[in-house]
User: Fold Isoprenyl transferase from Paenibacillus algicola.
Amino acid sequence: MIKRVRSWLNRGDSQPELQLAADNIPEHVAIIMDGNGRWAKKRGMPRIIGHQNGMKAVKRAAIAADDLGIKILTLYAFSTENWKRPKEEVEFLMKLPQEFLAIELEELIDKNVRVTMMGHPEDLPSHTLEAMKEAVARTADNDGMVLNFALNYGSRKELTRCIQEMGQDIHRGSLKPEDITEEMIGSRLLSGSLPDPDLLIRTSGELRLSNFMLWQLAYSELWFTDILWPEFTGAHLQEAVAEYQHRTRRYGGLT
Ligand code: IPE
Ligand code: IPE
Ligand code: MG
Assistant:
């Protein structure tokens, strides 16, 4: 089945329609939203203006993902390494979830979107965590697209914690080392019951994972673009999905 998708965002009518196979839409798409600072710098503006505009791209990406029938959209919003940035920038970034949700939460509820958070809650300021908790609680019964924010997320910390917890369970006698399976490890990670991403997108031309979902991305398809995150539109997501549909996923086997 072919899904005709109109390029509806920020692209002229001259752009040809992309034809996407409706039966091969990636179920879980993860995005490393990068390039906000460079976007602002190019315009002679402070970095935070880049983050502000990045928030608009979050909305565009979420709408486009939902329209395409993507079931889970994971967005890398703040890494465990991003605390190294200047205090003012970190403080600004920590205000964005509140700001985004104050504007968008009602619409997310209307659109049946379920908001989730993947990250280490303990270091987040309480105003950030409370805003996220409210969004998670108020959308908990929705069964539409999952919008999963990776906030204070770091894969090595996630794996370290998981190993520590399993060690404690072994020490207590509730887990035997030989009973540890790949599925068990996966389910004990912050992504919990979410399936692994089928497609990873990174914007801004950087070709690295920056400590993002190292376990979960083992067999994901990777798509990199030079587009800076605040310029990202639904048309770019379509482009990524179109390329995904040309990939052959072999998982080490033969086709
Ligand atoms: C991504 O944009 C947003 C976060 C990492 C929070 P950057 O802020 O990393 O932008 P660049 O990479 O400096 O351009
Ligand atoms: C990765 O981007 C983190 C997020 C997008 C939240 P960074 O800008 O922090 O990554 P590096 O430092 O270039 O690897
Ligand atoms: Mg960056």
